[in-house]
Amino acid sequence: MSSDTSRNSEEKWFFSLFILTLSCPLLFGVALAPEDVFCLLYAGPASLVWGWVVVSFFTLFVGIAMAEICSSFPTTGSLYFWAAHLAGPKWGPFASWCCAWLETIGLIAGIGTQAYAGSQTLQSIILLCTGTNKDGGYFAPKWLFLCMYIGLTIIWAVLNTFALEVIAFIDIISIWWQVVGGLVIVIMLPLVAQTTQSASYVFTHFEMSPTSTGISSKPYAVILSFLVSQYSLYGYDAAAHLTEETKGADKNGPIAILSSIGIISVFGWAYILALTFSIQDFSYLYDPSNETAGVFVPAQILYDAFHGRYDSSTGAIILLFVIWGSFFFGGLSITTSAARVVYALSRDKGVPFSSIWRQVHPKHKVPSNAVWLCAAICIILGLPILKVNVVFTAITSICTIGWVGGYAVPIFARMVMSEKNFKAGPFYLGKASRPVCLIAFLWICYTCSAFLLPTYYPIDLETLNYAPVALGVGLGLIMLWWLLDARKWFKGPVRNIHSENGKV
Questions:
Q1: What is the DSSP letter of 359?
Q2: CA angle centred on 64, ends 12 and 57, rounded to 5°
Q3: How far is CA 390 from the centre of its chain?
Q4: If residue 296 lies in a helix (H) or strand (E), which one and from where to where?
Q5: CA 273 to CA 49: how far, in whole Å?
Q6: CA distances from 176 to 18, 22, 170, 171, 430 (A)
Q7: Which of 127, 198, 303, 407 is the most exposed place for a label (fewest CB within 10 A)?
Q8: What are the domain boundaries of the chain?
């Protein structure tokens, strides 16, 4: 290979990494997701701002642990392959089973988080385009909100079934949308706002809202205020998948993972700071009689800034559309990933009726049945929107626990395995491996536990966090299937399990 060809390959890889990282739905989810409505309310701006820093710090340990594993398996980006190989012949199938199902649950719920966030942003756009909540603007009722949620899910499924070429083109659009739109929000919002909060307010102001949340314990409020950061900082394992067919994958894989965490951490903090510095009246953000009906904090912050400066909400509508586009791109990307994981697990007979879900469309060469299975489950998850107001909390919790929980399996296996059995790649932690893995594993356990907590008090049918119920039933059935039947025949990713350092 000539030096020019090698250089072009490296440039192409870095550009692909940049696309993947910045088209990741988590970037705008960082500070603009519906979860931010509650996390800011629990303990005020300081807890939200510093929470992002704390979560970024511990997430780096998770990324470093995964980077070492990725370096050992440079051509196989599958989490459940990593788990199967690291756990060894005896425990490999069980580790692979747990990891694969956690990842599947997390990705499918991830589609729902983007569909909900996109629908809520669209709800705010419609409201401001028709007026405001104060002067007769149209606020989409629950049935229409559910229709938007279902509509987005179906659009993503259709595109993933029939328009892979279009998706490739959308990926290019996505990076410019994210970069330009993100920079415009971060730079313009504080400049447009008539007044900005002081640094002491943003970095030191702690304010609880016990009358709204029912939570009077400061430590508990801080824990809940961290949720938006914990929800946002994952998905970086996807960057490692780009390295499977690139030169120097054992080096580029770790770079991809750690670069993703770094970029998301910096961009995310910038978004949070732009929002918090631009707050005009903290208590007014949650007033159900305000211009945006008090349901979407970023929409009210944008409205206050542009209407206060120009006596018009046009600027706010445009930036909300930028945010909506980010959720659209994110949902499309997660649908692709979810379908691939379901297809891979079905290929290894790990999903009921696997013969159906592993079928590939004869013309478009995509696992279309797996795509529509993911879409159908996502729609079912969203049906409670008609009756309860905590659907997003439940879906977000399921998504985070599944996705991040999937990371815990290979990390735990790496931590307890004999060092002589680990074939190190160029990115090797040596004696630091076990301490890093231990911190990463404990942080993941804490994160999963935090998302099982009630987020409102008193607890009733309207405020209950349904994630423990849904996960308890789902994971219980999966484990029961393993004990009664699957353990007798499931061997993990059988096509790759005998590979060494990821080379078949």
A1: -
A2: 110
A3: 18
A4: none
A5: 7
A6: 11, 9, 10, 9, 39
A7: 198
A8: 29-488
Burial of 454 (0-12, 13-18, 19+ CB in 10 A): middle
Low-confidence ranges of the chain (pLDDT < 70): 1-38, 74-77, 164, 238-249, 494-504
Measuring CA to CA, which residue among 205, 284, 276 is closest to residue 30? 276
Question: Spelled out in words, what is the top-level CATH class assigned to the domain 29-488?
Answer: mainly alpha
- DSSP summary character for residue 140: -
pLDDT of residue 38: 63
Please state the length of the chain: 504
Question: Taking Cα atoms as reference points, which of 329, 328, 332, 350 lies closest to residue 341?
Answer: 350
So what's the pLDDT on residue 31? 40
Any idea what DSSP says for residue 283?
G
Q: What is the pLDDT of residue 19?
A: 52
* CB-CB contact of 47 with 225 (8 Å): yes
Q: Please, are residues 175 and 18 in contact by the beta-carbon 8 Å criterion? A: yes
Residue with tokens 């939200």: 48
> Element (H or E) spanning 414, and its range?
helix 391-416
Residue 491 has which token pair?
């061997």
How far apart CA 318 and CA 144 sit, in angstroms, is: 22
Alpha helical stretches, state H, 349-466: 354-357, 368-382, 391-416, 433-450
Write down the pLDDT at residue 20: 52
Q: What is the pLDDT of residue 8?
A: 53
Please tell me the predicted confidence (pLDDT) of residue 244.
52
